[in-house]
Fold:
Amino acid sequence: MISAVRPKCKESGHNSQRFEMKIDYDQLRKLYEDTCCTKNLQYSYGTAGFRTLAKDLDTVMFTTGILAVLRSLKLQGQYVGVMITASHNPYQDNGVKIVEPDGSMLLAAWEPYAMQLANAASFATTFDEFYAELVKLVEHEKIDLDTSAVAPHVVVGRDSRESSPFLLRCLTSTMASVFHAQVVDLGCVTTPQLHYVTNLSNRRQREDGHATVATEQDYYSFFVEAFNELFTTYQIEKRLSVPKLFVDTANGIGGPQLKKLLASKDWAVPSDEIEIVNDKSDVPELLNFECGADYVKTNQRLPKGLSPSSPDSLYCSFDGDADRVVFYYVDPESKFHLLDGDKISTLFAKFLSQQLELANLTDSLKIGVVQTAYANGSSTTYIEDALHCPVSCTKTGVKHLHHEAATQYDIGIYFEANGHGTIIFSEKFHQTIESQLSKSQGNLLALNTLNCFAKLINQTVGDAISDMLAVLATLSILQMAPTDWDREYTDLPNKLVKCIVPDRSIFQTTDQERKLQNPAGLQTKIDSVIAKYPMGRSFVRASGTEDAVRVYAECEDPTKLDQFCNEIVEYVKSSV
Ligand code: 16G
Ligand code: ZN
Structure:
């Protein structure tokens, strides 16, 4: 295996005497030359990993595959996950992101490596230029490439895009042949399934030296069991509190996966209570087209394929890789009502706070909600004033919210308004509940409810399927109709606008993106506009996923909202 050890990279001027790349240089070179066809494009690893037109991703897939292997080697051969997806983007796009062994996003300190490797391959004029960059990284991180001691392990998954099988081949091309990695291909899965399976595989390996990797089937069994357990605990008939739930799966991978879950032999809710629409994941161009969470949230209207039925019916939309969900209903006057990420987190906060109180645990376990600046001001006021829960605000992007929820609270509920989110339960939470239950102390119903509810949540990442089940369970237990849920608080009228500017990088923010530091003087102008509108709030930030600047505004008077937002947009345009 360690056939052609190349001691030094003479051509690239790399002259380390200490270091040997114990990999097959010729094989790597051949695969590089065969695979990396896209050249001279600058790639950046953002909040969503790499994402762009699928036709431009061969080189990036090649280098990301290598980086995943290196990450696994750095972590003593633990399973590292890689997901090929472009989430809610149109069907022509694709993307890739790396998942840590515990199921969280790639460690921030490694994101620059992902970029360096991709851009080295993209701009290198010879293979050795790229190779030198690889050597530099391996040396810097002191990674032992001798795979005879520890083999790297990688779990790969992809959403339903047509381009994914080809990109998967680019991704995995070097894994086994050059780095002797054990690669587990999950096939088509949702992003949260990939996170969950990566986490479970490592837990099994750690806890009982389990040699077998976790599977998609484990995911279905686990969540169906958790759902059933919660219903049994409550002794509620296995019927939902809503007569019908319509699920728009954006013609993405969520459709077939949800069908598999509902087809599980143990799934007990009558099949006519949940109807899946927009489930044509085999028609590529329909993906996210006029449907899905992003479409519904942005346009505040029903997606294609759905027409209003009874006001008691509840609807929800996933995005293309099913890590995001928003709910909605239509009232008797045919008015559309969105129940977005803010509404989901407030529903969970209300329910879990009640259960904590019933279990007499409010003093020992800290519950809190994590939001971003996009959270509607009314939701923040409601959580603080009506639920008496603390609220944290972080920068946009799941990893920021996740970190805050995991480090600040025992029950950390986090959601972005766009529907990305989950709940993190701390070690202390599990120990406390377990200890109380084992002593049969306190309100057993509340303790069991908390215990079961924690199982129903995919704690590795926001998960449309798991979040959907948790919302259904909560509404059933609280006996709430969609209108009751919506009535808890009323959103302030709000608007989100995209502004194209010559260089978005000059828009630098502080205070969790709520204030601009640059361009100089612009924030003062924005503040003077905000002061004119009762309950006014507005902020400006550069998008991390598009070449644009986003302007958010909310105020009390819906008739003034356009004017408010336009004034800010005008200042933004005149500042560049
Ligand atoms: C990415 C983020 C999402 C965030 C969005 C903001 C992840 C997995 N995804 O899709 O959380 O809301 O970017 O996009 O972190 P923007 O920067 O273009 O506004
Ligand atoms: Zn997504």
